[in-house]
Write a structure and sequence with these properties.
842 residues, mainly beta, Immunoglobulin-like, 18-stranded antiparallel beta sheet, twelve-stranded mixed beta sheet, elongated, disordered N terminus, carboxypeptidase activity, Carboxypeptidase-like regulatory domain-containing protein, carboxypeptidase
Length: 842
């Protein structure tokens, strides 16, 4: 799920908003800036509301207009060569402030222009970059602060007329009848999501760890509930924006920071003016991307003239950049000097204004607001304290109005109070309520039945059709926290109309401890399986797992699987799992094997049972784990690899087991940024089975016979094409994120992203495992064998285009080796194929 859950929150906000995105009272200040002597307009003067980053510049005639959602007591007006002045502001929605500036009595200081960089802004930025390690808060051994975050989501742009004078569509007309407030452009906006979260945030540098303890949270919205998962996703952990880093990871995109190492490569700077912010005089410097279509910020940065340190930044990414569904991304941040001398982001506001997904569909506006207070520096906790990285107080839902009034940085405006009231009215409108349930069912796959405290699903597995079962129907369920906070029950029943067989699964899990997370569970399953396509090698690809139940199933077998497991988070990113498993193999195809030499009965057999003891150690130091009711799920890792080591011991004559064997498997998964070249994702894995066992117990790489591209499969390898008892593989994908297409005028607007892939597999099978397969079974039928890799590795490479129509991906894949291989299934290989896939991405 690496990003699925966070993407669920933001995607849910964007798209529930889009088809059903903050608004406060808008204050409009206008006027003209003139020379006090000549009366002529002063162009490019800086006009700002005191103490904020809200401002503008005058036009060539000195005229200006400012629209703001909050006011201060005065307006500051300044221009090079003139004395700055302050004008009192009135608490009214519209006012005119004409400013007259007097020429400065002091001479301007000498400005030295360097050959490199040109504009004096480069001299300031070069020094700010040189000093950034001195002011970067990550240089502290540790820090903690009180965090308040607020997220608001609105539907907008539904009342205006469309192209060619068309009236709003049916959804727009429906939204027009709902309770609304007025946005900054004077248009109605319907609130559909509001959340507030108060938490303690902790971080340390060595080892690099962070933790958020959610103390209180309140969530109201369409298609969401006031649950723990949303409370974690809306807290401070996902609102960390440090412009002193080389890049910011926003909406799954790496955007270079104008105060990072690539400042001069990516951006152009221009000295605009000087400005007083609080007690500091700051350089006001504009920055823009050197290439307009690059994924980079544009905006203004304020650098303290005394410390040459970051004081404020106003950064935007507009629709020209390669981010889906986003008209504009806007980050405003205030940095303050702390007692230790570093700079710390004390207030951050992120605004995402979406474009309309369809010509007559509405848009959405999302705003994230976060503050940091009561900062404590250089007092890191012990490393174990930071596990888990996010946790909820038991009474996090219990907070009265007085509590929120106390922790809010500023009192809410009348419109914000109205938004909180209106969102409850909106979510209870019958059509909107149904739409929210559809969105939730589509994303989560489960339908809650409130009175019984169970969830029915997943919807994806409800039906399949194949040559063995005919029409397969399945009904599944699981309990939720309404049933118990300690016990989790789950299961399903399935039936095939052709084989007329019932299949089932029952599971029970007991939460022994939530800190550290410790569970024990038991699961029993009886179902139809196929060799080479199992839950062990499919992983978390639920769509591909559902697809594998359709069509022709070759080498099918029934399996009864009993699993007893114990899992515990050990701290520092380690999770340990111990499992005892017993499973049977009942083939529905010609299959046989010779018994091991130590067996008294040397009769050729076709069925077997195994009992396995498994130890799995997983190390993911950078991973964020979220708690979804009684289930723990991963929100992914961005900087450090995830390593998994698994050892399996087959126990002969334990619960009727037929074999003794050993299996060791290792995997490493990681991604890293390559500057402007994009991001690389790679997976390395390998393993060894130094034992003699039937081939269904060996390693079968995951093939893919579908027309869809599957990330963890070999996409031009057939199912069960190869078997190995020792293997190693590397799977690499590099996404250039539009590096080339953004520079081609004809393709720039399409926002396509080019990528390349490569997958390599080496492996072999021992002669003892080959000899274990007899030519015929006990009934005299010819036994199907298997293929193995030679000294030549299996290699496939590809290139593709991502983000077609914002959801589609097309890959062209070439198989470079074993191109004339005819597997024992009789299916010829495909040396080249075009495969498609799709998902909602930013």
């Amino acid at each position: 799920m690496m990003h699925f859950l966070r993407r669920f929150l933001l995607t849910g906000l964007l798209f529930s908003c889009s088809w059903l995105a903050m608004a406060q009272t808008t204050y409009v200040i206008s006027g003209r800036v003139t020379d006090a002597v000549t009366g002529e307009g002063i162009p490019f003067a800086s006009i700002a509301i005191k103490g904020t980053t809200i401002g503008t510049t005058s036009d060539v005639e000195g005229r200006y207009t400012i629209r703001a959602k909050r006011l201060a007591d005065s307006l500051q007006v300044l221009s090079l060569g003139y004395q700055s002045r302050f004008y009192r502001l009135m608490p009214v929605e519209t006012q005119v402030v004409n400013a007259q500036l007097t020429a400065g009595a002091t001479k301007l200081q000498e400005v030295k222009v360097y050959a490199k960089g040109g504009d004096p802004a480069y001299r300031v930025m070069r020094e700010a970059i040189r000093r950034r390690a001195q002011y970067d808060p990550t240089r502290l051994s540790g820090y903690q602060y009180d965090s308040y975050t607020k997220i608001e989501g609105y539907v907008n742009n539904f009342s205006q007329k469309r192209r060619k004078g068309r009236s709003p569509g049916p959804i727009g007309r429906l939204l027009g009848k709902l309770p609304a407030i007025t946005d900054g452009n004077g248009n109605p906006a319907v609130p559909v999501f509001v959340s507030e979260t108060f938490s303690n945030f902790y971080a340390r540098t060595n080892p690099e760890k962070q933790k958020e303890r959610v103390l209180k949270s309140h969530v109201t919205g369409v298609g969401v509930s006031d649950g723990g998962l949303i409370a974690q996703l809306t807290g401070a952990s996902f609102q960390q924006y440090n412009f002193y880093r080389n890049s910011l990871y926003v909406l799954r995109k790496d955007i270079p920071s104008p105060v990072g190492a690539q400042w001069e490569t990516v951006y152009t700077f221009r000295m605009k003016d000087t400005m007083t912010l609080g007690d500091a005089v700051c350089y006001e410097i504009e920055f823009t991307p050197k290439r307009a279509a690059d994924l980079a910020f544009a905006g203004t940065v304020w650098i303290d003239t005394m410390q040459v340190a970051l004081a404020q930044i106003d950064a935007r990414v507009d629709k020209r950049a390669n981010i889906n569904f986003v008209d504009e991304l806007h980050i405003e941040q205030e940095w303050e000097r702390t007692a230790s001398g570093v700079r710390f982001p004390t207030q951050t506001q992120v605004t995402i204004d979406t474009d309309e997904p369809a010509p007559r569909a509405p848009g959405a506006l999302i705003r994230f607001f976060a503050t940091a207070r009561n900062i404590v520096e250089n007092q890191p906790k012990e490393a174990g304290f930071y596990d888990p990285s996010i946790e909820l107080d038991d009474d996090y839902r219990m907070a009265d109005v007085a509590f929120w009034q106390r922790v809010r940085p500023d009192s809410l405006s009348a419109d914000e109070w109205k938004a909180m009231r209106v969102v409850d009215s909106v979510r209870n409108v019958p059509f909107i309520k149904v739409a929210g349930e559809i969105i939730k069912l589509g994303v989560l796959g489960y339908k809650p039945i409130e009175n019984w405290h169970i969830d029915v699903g997943p919807l994806l597995y409800s039906y399949a059709n194949n040559n063995i079962e005919g029409n397969r129907f399945r009904l599944g369920m699981r309990t939720n926290t309404g049933f118990s906070r300690k016990w989790l029950l789950s299961g399903y029943v399935a039936y095939g109309t052709r084989d007329q067989q019932f299949k089932y699964n029952v599971g029970i899990e007991r939460i022994l401890s939530r800190k550290p997370w410790t569970v024990v569970g038991y699961r029993q399953t009886y179902d139809l399986e196929r060799i080479g396509v199992s839950a062990d090698n499919i992983g978390g690809n639920s769509f591909f797992a559902a697809y594998s139940r359709f069509g022709i199933i070759r080498r099918p077998y029934f399996q009864e699987d009993k699993l007893l497991y114990f899992r515990r988070e050990m701290g520092s990113g380690f999770t340990q799992t111990l499992a005892l498993r017993r499973r049977s193999f009942e083939p529905l195809f010609p299959f046989a094997f010779r018994p091991q030499p130590q067996d008294d009965d040397q009769t050729i057999r076709s069925t077997y049972q195994v009992t396995e003891l498994t130890s799995e150690t997983r190390f993911a130091p950078d991973e964020v784990i979220l708690q979804n009711d009684n289930v723990r799920v991963s929100a992914g890792a961005t900087r450090k690899p995830i390593v998994t080591l698994r050892y399996t011991l087959g126990l002969r004559q334990v619960f009727g087991s037929d074999f003794t064997y050993h299996r060791v498997a290792f995997s490493l998964k990681h991604s890293f940024r390559m500057g402007v070249l994009g991001r690389t994702y790679y997976t390395l894995d390998g393993g060894l089975i130094p034992s003699t066992v039937p081939y269904p117990l060996l390693y079968t790489p995951l093939g893919n016979e579908s027309s869809f591209y599957v990330g963890n499969a070999y996409n031009l390898m057939n199912f069960f094409e190869f078997v190995a008892d020792r293997w190693a593989s590397a799977q690499v994908e590099h996404n250039f994120n539009g590096l080339l297409f953004n520079r081609l005028p004809g393709l720039r607007r399409l926002k396509w992203r080019e990528l390349v892939t490569a997958k390599v597999l080496v492996g072999s099978v021992s002669s003892a495992n080959v000899a274990l397969i007899p030519p015929a079974d006990e009934q005299g039928r010819a036994v199907e064998g298997f293929n193995s890799l030679s000294r030549t590795p299996y290699v496939e490479v590809g290139y593709g285009i991502d983000n077609i129509f914002k959801v589609l991906r097309v890959d062209a894949i070439h198989r470079l080796t074993y191109r004339d291989n005819l597997s024992r299934t009789g299916i010829p290989v495909t040396p080249f194929a075009i495969k498609v896939s799709g998902w909602l991405a930013f």
